[in-house]
């Protein structure tokens, strides 16, 4: 087994790290407090090519592998998991799907604007009554011949306000159950689309999350992705990749909290010596390091499976389940190691703890991951 | 016009410095190598000039004197935007030997503007740029914090105590640059990283030039002394510490 990263992967990781440490850190606390979308950072990162990392260069992307993308998400998440999720949703839930399953016309129309970041992507699956049970879609796409008529409401949509290329799942044939669902590329500017106010969240506060309402939105037939009824399968395929992005985000959150704790424990003194020399703290850091290493191995392996053309759904779910739990545990211990300082915003670890929580919830809760993994075992 | 940037391959500035062989050799195990920070700023400024001067600058070349393990650093410079790279296949020993290697290359392929960082962040010799200019019989300007190309004319700014000097120079010349030459180093774009492999990286044989100096031993600074807090009112205690512990009075 070769665990060495390539020269390009090392450069990409360093580029993401440099940007995070030089730029994202400057206003991450302020954006967290105000819940402001990182527009300027999104523009800068788009210019550096992070929005089109994996898209084929013929559509303006970087043509990079999944592991490169995972490394970048991890580095951004160490400092700013909100910026990371903007890029993660855009790359793995939207751009990847259009490239993998879209028609040539769809690719030519949407991939260049997604690759350049001039349009940000959003993935609209969850509904007020359809979260974990994604097949229970109430949004409908009535077949009108040359177009579909979209009606319904989507919930918890990351990038809904900043984004303008939506991938929307909706029922065309409710009588067929999940086999009646279609996926559509929808542009936010089309008539009949409205947004609820930005959700006031526990963490990832500067990523914009909204409910989106569709009222008689005309979607051209050519904007349907895949054959009639392919939507549910498509959504599940997208989530397989998306979960890897969230696993990388969770790993980055955990790594950020761990690195800060390791440094703090060497500087902070109690009873006449650095607290890392107290076994109670040293053992915590040892356990955190072990979990972090395992998390990285889980997510890098899932990326490697995808890059080498092997099935990766099971590995992706395992990675997301493990990395999300590791992030929650490591960030909680990080706050504990920091003591009172950990409980105030200036030291970042309380924010990382708040950000870790959602990784156990979105793109499939930890409970859903267990269902996916268990089904995979008996298949 | 062509610009040459002389790059040093140096340990990351956060590296914990250790020595082996009874303190005679730097321990490179586990070290992450980077472009010398001043050289990276020089590269950034060269690219800015190239981008804003139309077609005046034909190319920006980066060069290092080093073995094959320095190539990732050169490729990073290509990813940042240099047009081509040259590695002179010699283990760098001292400033004389390095300057002689660069001289050999520049005499074969002349450049109009040669930029060297004011020092390398590892050995801090601050000598290669000046020697190179001397060997090439070129003008050299040290401590340059501003480099401008206007209507084919070069203008250089130098920081001096309490102010700034503005100079002109004939071309070709060597500028030894310091902080301020560019705002901050560039982060390579994804496209730049992918293109780096397809840009030319030429390996040149070393010219005959032996080092004139050599290291006999390195010594790490003593660990930081512990901080002792003395109450502001307790001058007697302070004097005692000065006299008995620090022995400075």
Sum up the structure in keywords.
heterodimer, A: 379 residues, alpha+beta, Butyryl-Coa Dehydrogenase, subunit A, domain 1, Butyryl-CoA Dehydrogenase, subunit A, domain 2, Butyryl-CoA Dehydrogenase, subunit A, domain 3, 3 domains, four-stranded mixed beta sheet, four-stranded antiparallel beta sheet, 10 strands, globular, B: 249 residues, alpha/beta, Rossmann fold, nine-stranded mixed beta sheet, two-stranded antiparallel ribbon, 6 helices, 27% helix
Characterization of the model:
- The complex is a heterodimer of chains A (379) and B (249).
- With 379 residues, chain A is α+β, with helices and mostly antiparallel strands.
- Chain A folds into 3 domains: 114 residues, Orthogonal Bundle (Butyryl-Coa Dehydrogenase, subunit A, domain 1), CATH 1.10.540; 111 residues, Butyryl-CoA Dehydrogenase, subunit A, domain 2 (Beta Barrel), CATH 2.40.110; 146 residues, Butyryl-CoA Dehydrogenase, subunit A, domain 3 (Up-down Bundle).
- Helices cover 53% and strands 15% of the residues of chain A.
- Chain A has 10 helices and 10 strands.
- In chain A, strands 1-4-5-8 form a 4-stranded mixed β-sheet. A 4-stranded antiparallel β-sheet of chain A has the order 2-3-7-6, with helices on one face. Chain A has a two-stranded antiparallel ribbon with strand order 9-10.
- In chain A, strand 2 and strand 3 form a beta hairpin.
- In chain A, helix 3 crosses helix 6, helix 6 runs antiparallel to helix 7 and helix 8 packs antiparallel against helix 9.
- Chain A is globular.
- By secondary structure, chain B is of the alpha/beta class.
- Chain B has a single domain, classed as HUPs (Rossmann fold).
- Chain B is built from 6 helices and 13 strands.
- In chain B, strands 11-10-9-12-8-1-6-7-13 form a 9-stranded mixed β-sheet, sandwiched between helices.
- In chain B, helix 2 crosses helix 5 and helix 3 crosses helix 4.
- The longest helix of chain B has 16 residues.
- Chain B is globular.
- Chain B starts with a strand and ends with a helix.
- The chains are: A alpha+beta (379), B alpha/beta (249).
- Chains A and B meet through helix 1 of A and helix 2 and helix 5 of B.
């Amino acid at each position: 087994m070769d665990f060495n990263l390539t020269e390009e992967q090392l450069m990409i990781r360093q580029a993401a790290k440099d940007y995070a440490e030089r730029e994202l850190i400057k206003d991450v606390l302020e954006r967290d407090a105000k819940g402001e979308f990182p527009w300027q950072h999104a523009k800068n990162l788009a210019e550096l090519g992070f929005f089109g990392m994996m898209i084929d260069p013929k559509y303006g992307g970087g043509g990079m592998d999944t592991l490169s993308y995972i490394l970048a998400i991890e580095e951004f998440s160490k400092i700013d998991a909100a910026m990371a999720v903007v890029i993660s949703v855009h790359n793995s839930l939207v751009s990847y799907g259009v490239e993998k399953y879209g028609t040539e016309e769809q690719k030519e129309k949407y991939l260049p604007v997604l690759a350049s970041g001039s349009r940000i992507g959003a993935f609209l699956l969850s509904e007020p009554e359809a979260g974990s049970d994604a097949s229970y879609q109430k949004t409908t796409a009535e077949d009108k011949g040359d177009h579909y008529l979209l009606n319904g409401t989507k919930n918890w949509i990351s990038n809904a306000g900043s984004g303008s290329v939506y991938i929307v799942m909706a029922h065309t044939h409710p009588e067929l159950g999940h086999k009646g669902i279609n996926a559509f590329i929808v542009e936010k500017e089309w008539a009949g689309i409205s947004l609820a106010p930005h959700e006031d969240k526990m963490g990832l506060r500067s990523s914009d999350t909204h409910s989106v309402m569709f009222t008689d939105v005309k979607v051209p037939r050519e904007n349907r992705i895949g054959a009639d009824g392919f939507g549910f399968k498509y959504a599940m395929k997208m989530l397989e990749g998306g979960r890897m992005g969230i696993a990388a985000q969770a790993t980055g959150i955990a790594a950020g909290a761990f690195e800060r704790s390791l440094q703090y424990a060497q500087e902070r003194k109690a009873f006449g010596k650095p607290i890392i020399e107290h076994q109670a703290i040293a053992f915590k850091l040892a356990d955190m390091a072990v979990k972090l290493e395992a998390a990285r191995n889980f997510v890098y392996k899932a990326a490697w499976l995808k890059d080498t053309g092997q099935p990766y759904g099971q590995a992706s779910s395992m990675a997301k389940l493990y990395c999300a739990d590791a992030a929650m545990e490591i960030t909680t211990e990080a706050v504990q190691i920091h003591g009172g300082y950990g409980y105030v915003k200036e030291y970042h670890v309380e924010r990382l703890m708040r950000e870790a929580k959602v990784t156990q919830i979105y793109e499939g809760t930890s409970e859903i991951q267990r269902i996916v993994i268990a089904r995979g075992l008996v298949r | 016009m062509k610009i040459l940037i002389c790059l040093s391959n140096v340990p990351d500035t956060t590296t914990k410095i250790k020595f082996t062989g009874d303190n005679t050799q730097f321990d490179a195990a586990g070290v992450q190598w980077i472009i010398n920070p001043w050289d990276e700023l020089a590269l950034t400024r060269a690219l800015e000039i190239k981008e804003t001067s139309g077609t005046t600058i034909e190319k920006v070349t980066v060069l290092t004197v080093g073995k094959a393990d320095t190539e990732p650093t050169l490729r990073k410079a290509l990813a940042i935007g240099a047009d081509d790279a040259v590695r002179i296949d010699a283990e760098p020993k001292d400033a004389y030997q390095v300057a002689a290697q660069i001289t050999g290359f520049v005499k074969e392929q002349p450049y109009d503007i040669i930029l060297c960082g004011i020092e390398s962040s590892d050995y801090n010799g601050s000598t290669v740029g000046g020697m190179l200019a001397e060997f090439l019989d070129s003008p050299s300007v040290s401590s340059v914090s501003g480099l401008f190309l206007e209507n084919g004319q070069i203008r250089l700014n130098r920081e001096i105590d309490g102010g700034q000097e503005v100079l002109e120079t004939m071309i070709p010349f060597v500028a030894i640059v310091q902080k301020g030459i560019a705002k901050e180093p560039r982060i390579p774009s994804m496209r730049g990283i992918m293109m780096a492999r397809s840009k030319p990286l030429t390996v040149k044989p070393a010219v005959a030039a032996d080092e004139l100096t050599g290291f006999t031993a390195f010594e790490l600074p003593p660990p930081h002394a512990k901080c002792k807090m003395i109450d502001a009112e307790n001058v007697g205690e302070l004097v005692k510490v000065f006299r008995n512990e620090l022995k400075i009075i």
